[in-house]
Amino acid sequence: MSQATSYVSDRPAPAQWLAQFWRLLPVLAQRLLSRALMMLFVALIVFVVLRVMPVDPLGMLMPPNATKADVAALSHALGLDLPLHRQFMIWLGNVLHGDFGRSIQSGRAVGPLILNALPTTLQLIFCGLSLGIAVGLGSGILAFRYRGTRIESGIDLGNSVAISIPEFLWAILMILGLGIGLQLLPFLGPINANITVPRITGFLLLDSLLDGSPAAFGSALQHLVMPSLAMALGIAPPIMRILRSSLMEVYNEDYIVAARLRGTSENRILLRHALRNAALPTVSMIGLQAGTVIGGTLLLETIYGFPGIGSVMVTAIANHDLPVIQGLALTYALSVLVMNMMTDTLLLIINPRLRAS
After folding, report:
1. Residue 157: pLDDT above 60?
2. Contact between residue 355 and residue 347 where contact means Cβ atoms under 8 Å apart
3. pLDDT band (50, 70, 90) for residue 1
4. Nearest to 340 by CA among 32, 109, 25
5. Which residues cross the membrane (predicted)?
């Protein structure tokens, strides 16, 4: 019996998932420690790069007639006159206590500023990622199931077109076609300007449901269609390709031939046997896509006028607002590391060969 056969038969029952998770805790703790060290390195790199860039964060705060004494006083008040290593240690100590500093431009605390914008970004990521995964998995299964037919050729053509156009260009094309040309969907802001939803969780779709407002929910959902679709078109093609390639490899295994000789239908072989083994590289690809899509929201939020952390980052860069840029860069890095950690954990749970190694 092949190795793939034992893999299918050794898949854990639902009652065993928790026990396996506890057995994996030492491995997960080790990986979590390495991620923490990586976060520290990322924080150091971001801090140093922002400080050595030839920009003057005080330039936009000082009046044209400011004297050198005024500049020195403001620099001392913000701690920018200290040695670089002392600035970093002070900032890192504050971050560990949950204090990301204050915006140079507005004077607002950076932490609440990020937390206020984060739900908008997370909602967009969830919708775009879910749609992209669904389209990628569905098209991959269809392309493999109808391989050698016009259906596969059509999916390949659509996949090639989707992967050759970046997300921001898809966003612009949708605005021109679906928004301005056909006037099918709204394309500016997260909801219609004449609709107000009380902030409960920060997630607009959920808040509109909690508020009992179908009109607000419908408007928020319509505003999410185009940015989610633009994001999904960047996510789906790699998932489709890796899933189809994995299925082709799996179909060369002996247990597929044995199942076919037993009279098992092709659809059952595909969905109950082959897809389980082909899922492993696909899960890795989904985790990679989820990590990279977080940074891709910056352009989409700017194009569609969504008040997420991407829009906050663009404003902070334009104003040379170092504390806000540092806090957002750390947030992006932390989000990517969390997604990678979740992917590693899922692969360890569902793949016995990784646990054995």
Report:
1. yes
2. no
3. very low
4. 32
5. 32-53, 122-146, 167-188, 215-236, 324-350
Measured distance between the N- and C-terminal CA atoms of the chain, rounded to whole angstroms: 21
Q: Do the domain assignments include residue 28?
A: no
Report whether pLDDT(127) > 90: yes
Query: Number of folded domains in the chain?
Result: 1
Q: Is residue 82 part of a domain?
A: no
pLDDT greater than 50 at residue 321? yes
For residue 85, tell me if it sits in a domain.
no
Residue 37 has what pLDDT?
A: 84
pLDDT at 222: 93
CA distances from 186 to 31, 40, 175, 176, 313 (A): 43, 41, 8, 11, 24
Q: In the prediction, which pLDDT does 205 show? A: 92
- 101 near 113, Cβ under 8 Å? no
Give residue for tokens 């390495």.
34
The runs of H, that is alpha helices, within the chain are 3-9, 17-23, 25-52, 68-78, 84-96, 110-145, 150-164, 167-174, 204-210, 214-250, 254-261, 266-268, 275-304, 309-318, 322-350, 352-356
Say how far apart CA 136 and CA 279 lie, in whole Å: 12
Tell me how far CA of residue 21 lies from CA of 25, 27, 153, 270, 330, in angstroms: 6, 10, 42, 28, 28
Tokens of residue 203, six digits: 């997630």
pLDDT at residue 4 in the model: 43
- Measured CA to CA, the distance from residue 132 to residue 162 in angstroms comes to 12
CATH number for the domain harbouring residue 263: 1.10.3720.10
Does pLDDT of 34 surpass 90? no
Q: Is 297 in contact with 125 (CB distance < 8 Å)?
A: yes
- Span 332-337, mean pLDDT? 84
CB 76 within 8 A of CB 341: no
Kindly state the average pLDDT of the residues 1-21.
50
Give dist(CA 159, CA 137) in Å, integer: 12
Q: Is residue 13 part of a domain?
A: no
Domain extent, residue 280, equals 116-356
More confident site: 115 or 345 = 115
Which among 167, 126, 189 has a CA at the least distance from the CA of 339? 126
